[in-house]
Structures are given as C-alpha cells and as structure tokens.
Amino acid sequence: AQSVTQLDSQVPVFEEAPVELRCNYSSSVSVYLFWYVQYPNQGLQLLLKYLSGSTLVKGINGFEAEFNKSQTSFHLRKPSVHISDTAEYFCAVSGPGAGNMLTFGGGTRLMVKP
Amino acid sequence: DAGITQSPRHKVTETGTPVTLRCHQTENHRYMYWYRQDPGHGLRLIHYSYGVKDTDKGEVSDGYSVSRSKTEDFLLTLESATSSQTSVYFCAISSPSTDTQYFGPGTRLTVL
What we know:
The complex is a heterodimer. Chain A is an all-beta fold. In chain A, 0% of the residues lie in helices and 51% in strands. Chain A contains no helices and 12 strands. In chain A, the strands form 3 sheets. In chain A, strands 2, 5, 6, 10, 11 and 12 form a 6-stranded mixed β-sheet that branches. Chain A is globular, with a radius of gyration of 14 Å. The N and C termini of chain A lie far apart (41 Å). In chain A, 37% of the residues are buried. The model of chain A has no long low-confidence stretch (mean pLDDT 93). Chain B has strands at 4-7, 10-13, 19-25, 31-38, 42-51, 54-57, 64-70, 73-78, 87-94, 102-103, 107-111. The radius of gyration of chain B is 13 Å and the shape is globular. The A-B interface holds A 4, 6, 9, 32, 34, 36, 42-46, 49, 51, 90, 92, 96-99, 101-107 and B 30-31, 33, 40-45, 48, 50, 58, 90, 92, 94-106.
C-alpha cells in the first residue's frame, strides 16, 4: 500500500519570495511521483513528474522538485512566486508502469500575497 | 490539453435518485479512472478501467458502479445517491506511452 503526506495544508507567502511545498510518501515498491496544480474551479494540471533518471525534475511555470529516495520525499520548490501561482497543489504517487493508480496527498493551498 | 470532457459539469439531485456521470475522451487511451475530490482528502480513486468492459474497484467504490462499452466513454453511476456522495468528480485517462494521468474538468455533484 502507498500513502502520501503533504505536511502543510496552507502556505502563505509574499510575492517574489521563494516557496517549498513538502511531500513525503511511503511505498514498498519503486514509485513514480507527480505534482499537480489545481486553479480555482478547474481540473488538475500536471506540473511535473519523476519516473526515473535525474532526481531533480523541472516542470512548468518555473517549478522544480527533487526526488530523495532515502528520505522518501518529493518536495516542490519555486525560487520566486507570483500572484498567479495561488492555487492548490497535490502530490501523488503510483507504482511503476502504465495503468497504476495514483494515491494523492491531501493538498497544499499556496496563497501568494502582494 | 488532453481531449477529455465530462458531462454534466454541475448537477443537483435528491437523495435516493440515480445519477450517471459521463467521461468522454478523444485520445484513444486504454486506461480511464474516476476520482472524487473532498476537502482534506485530495483525490480518491472510485473505479478504473483497463479496457473495454474491463473495470475494477478503487479505494472508495461502495455505492458506485461503472461501465465502459467503448474505448472513448467511461460512465459512473450512483444507483441511489446519498448526501455523502456530494463531491467533485474527476475523470482521468492514461496510456502506456506516458505513464501519466491527465484529468478532465470535473463534475460538481450536490445531493440534497
């Protein structure tokens, strides 16, 4: 069984400040890791993913995440946030291979203040 | 954006009535999924399909059934809706070439 913990339910931050959204997972098998973003009243959009290879993954909108196998973490970072980054962010894990189900964390609401 | 549509986008119904939500894809992807989103829980898998007429249960399948008679359509049915099924429902698709799930716009269901 897999589980995902997003340690912060809300993260307030000022515009142009750096941000880190934390994600820890547990799994007995190797995993694929994902970050999705959900803007208000919209569906989920893929931000970035780790399937294999380099542990530092770059995504859209200037976000990046680092897979740390020893700490079972996949934290999301951005060096300078914008008002438009205000959204809910979901970390998710699946087993390797197509068709595997995603297990989601509870989400982190990023609130960027002017 | 992946070619996924969901219908209806909003629905209000009464306890005890049947409800069917539709997910339609134009990507010819093999795998399709239904999730529900509730505050604090992220998204939880209800049912999924790995081919026409091939479906299986997810984490929160009680009270739901699904059908997939053709590749492009995946239906979610609430046989007798309850207030606990008030939620936002998302459909997703994936294929072996991407190992990534892409989500539809969602259906907001309110059961009174």
